[in-house]
Amino acid sequence: MAPNCKWYSAKVFDDSGNGNSGITESALDDLVTNRKALNIKVLNLSLGVSSGNGTDTVLRAAVNSAVNNGVVVVVSAGNAGAGGIIADPGLANKVITVGASNDMNELTYYSSGGITPTDSSEDYKPDLLAPGGSQYRSLILAADSNTADASTSTFGDVVSNDYVGLQGTSMASPFAAGAAALLIDAFQQSGTTWAFSSSTQPLAVKMLLLASATETNTNREQSAGANPTLERAVAFKRSLAVVAVVGASPVAAPDPPPNRN
Questions:
Q1: Residue 223: which of 76, 80, 81 has the closest Cα?
Q2: What is the pLDDT of residues 226-251, one digit of tens each?
Q3: Local confidence band at 214 (pLDDT 50, 70, 90 cut-offs)
Q4: Is the per-residue pLDDT at 187 higher than 80?
Q5: How far apart are CA 253 and CA 244, in angstroms?
Q6: What DSSP element (H or E) covers 94?
Q7: Is the dihedral of CA 231, 207, 7, 35 positive or negative?
Q8: Bridge partners, residue 85, by sequence
Q9: Which residue of 12, 170, 250, 259 pairs with 124 in a disulfide if CB–CB is 3.0 to 4.6 A?
């Protein structure tokens, strides 16, 4: 999506894929502390809380704090399907929470169901869909971490440093993060200086991505369950009611866009 971006990574899982919210929160603190020195404007988190009821108010506060410090935060919605729920940090009202679409513009069978906010730190979710791959259509070509091909120990890695087909909202959120980076670059090319000082600019990016999104107008693939509600008649995204500064002129937020399917 944004091939000329430089990127920094924070390792929050061990080599077996185990981690915890505390490690993720520490990584977020480090990245936000160094955001100016390293020019970090977008964070992607392809992860979610899997324990308990999927909520972690400390982690939610950490990602909202990152946005308050001038960083766009993009989070995968999770792969629990229509009957599952989006977990933290994807519940946070200021982040961009991304579900997965297939290459027929359908919501994938595995994308977690939407949520209705229960307090002011949450919002209607998900925010966007982006390509996440589907076993029923096309997978996403992703880097192979040199584990055994076919994900089985009996089938060894044939070619190192190659690629593998994957699906999941963890594939979708980087597409949205790249789109956010391109939008930030457009701002900067037009004379905007990134402030790293408040949520105003990150929420402007979120507002523009949501306002320019199109509705799928299709049902979830494989008739695998309900679609997230648009909520356009009775609710709106509270985190978008901002005034965004683009260049030298303030741009007032339009009527809040609907909760996108």
A1: 81
A2: 887 666 655 566 555 333 333 333 33
A3: confident
A4: yes
A5: 7
A6: none
A7: negative
A8: 113
A9: 259
Burial of 199 (0-12, 13-18, 19+ CB in 10 A): buried
Cα separation, 186 vs 247, in Å, equals 11
Q: Which helix (H) or strand (E) holds 60?
A: helix 57-68
Amino acid at the residue 81: G
What would the two tokens of residue 110 be? Answer: 């595995």
**Residue 232 token pair:** 């356009």
Classify residue 245 as left (phi > 0), alpha (psi -120 to 50) or beta. Answer: beta
Q: The dihedral of CA 105, 185, 168, 24: what is its sign?
A: negative
Cβ-count burial of 194 within 10 angstroms (0-12 exposed, 13-18 middle, 19+ buried)? middle
Domains of the chain: 21-252 (3.40.50.200)
Residue-wise pLDDT for 3-58, tens only, equals: 999 999 999 998 888 899 999 999 999 999 999 999 999 999 999 998 878 999 99
Burial of 175 (0-12, 13-18, 19+ CB in 10 A): buried
Tell the residue number behind the tokens 């990134």, with chain if given. Answer: 194
